[in-house]
Amino acid sequence: MISTRRVLISGGTAGIGLATARLLLEQGDRVVISGRSPERGEAALRSLNHHEASFIACDASDPAQCVAMVDVAAERLGGIDALVSSAGGNPRPRLLKDTPCEDLLPSINRSLAPTIMPARAILPLMTGQGGGSIICFASDAGKLSTPGEVAIGTAMAGIIMFCRAMAEETKRNGIRVNCITPSIVEGTELHDDLMADTFAGKLFTKAKLRAELGVVQASEVAALANFLISAEAMRITGQTISITGGISTI
Questions:
Q1: pLDDT for 143-178, tens place per residue?
Q2: Rounded distance, CA 41 to CA 13, Å?
Q3: Which is nearest to 15 in space by CA: 178, 189, 160?
Q4: What digits encode the pLDDT tens for the residues 190-223?
């Protein structure tokens, strides 16, 4: 029997974040989802249709808004047992030669900041309450170089190392930090958007052919996140876990 958990899901209005919220609510957990758009937040709540779900508007790349998000969520829930950080800026592959110099760092930061800022913002709360679990989403682009994913891969590698280093620093406070790195995830708006793009669509169509175990679904990534925040995974921290269906085995 899983006891009720209090979970904040940053980037929880769509895709993997929303799939995770749905799974946790089905198990009896209490969930706060966040995202930049109040309209998308309200739509997400309608789709979840659960009295233990609520929404906070937050731009996860903004430090002040992240701190405020954590404060409001903790007040609503009476504490936060787990953070699932899945806001990632929906990056689109682009060759480095086609990326203007002035857009390179902003491109990296659009993927990096929204994922790591909520984790930093929740640190004082979890330290004070004596523990908690943090899950950040990156992608296998942070492990495996791919044409068109120089900026994306740089950001993803940054998220991976952030989680590993944060886990090392916070384990003495009972905080666990892990990173999940999917490749292609069906059942998300991002997947459909990328497949409709001429360059990204060709890239990912080829990648899908290597998914000998099947292309990963959003619900499967949610199930992995659920396990990592569970009591059964209480000894697991500082890990980067790929879920790709065999597209890569790094």
A1: 988 889 999 999 999 999 999 999 999 999 999 999
A2: 5
A3: 189
A4: 888 878 888 888 888 888 888 889 989 999 999 9
Q: In what order do the strands lie in the sheet with 175-182?
A: 53-57, 30-35, 6-10, 82-85, 132-137, 175-182, 240-243
Contact 174, 181 (CB under 8 A): no
Cα angle 15-228-72, degrees, rounded to a multiple of 5 = 65
- Tokens 């958007």 belong to 193
Give the separation between CA 190 and CA 13, rounded to whole angstroms. Answer: 12
- The Cα 151–Cα 178 span in angstroms is 22
* Residue 131 contacts residue 175 (beta carbons within 8 Å): yes
Under 8 Å CB-to-CB from 227, ≥6 apart: which residues?
A: 233
DSSP states of 195-224: HHSHHHHHHHHHHHTT-TT--EEHHHHHHH
| The amino acid at 32 | V
